[in-house]
Amino acid sequence: MVNMMTLLTSHWTDSRTPLRLFRLLVATLFCASATQALCASNDTGLSIITDKALGNCWACHTLPGQQGWVSNLAPSLVGVGGRYTPTQLQQWVTDARQINAQTLMPPFGSTQGLHRPASLQPVLTPEQIAMVVQTLSTWR
Ligand code: HEC
């Protein structure tokens, strides 16, 4: 107990402690801001979204927090989690034709009605779509 107290006291009186706390605060604010998507490197949904062989969503959509590449072919996905419920987002990604029969967005969870699809399997599995939807829902 005494050792613990000595340890704590010496830690809090260490002159570098305020500097460390300040750095931690800056890092936390930085990750909580628009760069949220970049800081969440273990975000599986985001890796599917940005993977050229999987979602490649940024070929058409602007994504929050992504620098260097911007596409305005489709509406920006910034704030999309506030515009749609998870069920609606799942419909958009699985087969946007359910929402707009004339859509330009490819169906990621269906090959139905496609002429000569590159593969008989949809681009994304239901599990991958669920992870994409989970990430989209956080974009508010
Ligand atoms: C080939 C271009 C293209 C790709 C790739 C694409 N989309 Fe889209 N998406 C569109 C277009 C165009 C729209 C606009 C609605 C329409 O045309 O029906 C749209 C609409 C959406 C919407 C509704 C947005 C709104 O604000 O109404 C969501 C959500 C969405 N896409 C998610 C995704 C995700 C997630 C991916 C990747 C898995 C993706 N899209 C890949 C073209 C694309």
Q: Which structural class best describes the helix and strand composition?
A: mainly alpha
- Tell me the radius of gyration: 21 Å
Order of helices and strands: HHHHHHH
CATH class of the largest domain: Mainly Alpha
Reported by name, the CATH topology of the largest domain is Cytochrome Bc1 Complex, Chain D, domain 2
The chain-level mean pLDDT equals 81
Total count of strands: 0
What is the correct CATH architecture of the largest domain? Answer: Orthogonal Bundle
Bound molecules: heme C
Give start-end ranges of low-pLDDT stretches: 21-37
The number of distinct helices, counting runs of at least 4 residues, comes to 7
Q: Indicate the percent of residues in helices.
A: 40-55%
Molecular shape: globular
Which labels suit this protein?
Cytochrome Bc1 Complex, Chain D, domain 2; binds heme C; 140 residues; 2 domains; mainly alpha; single chain
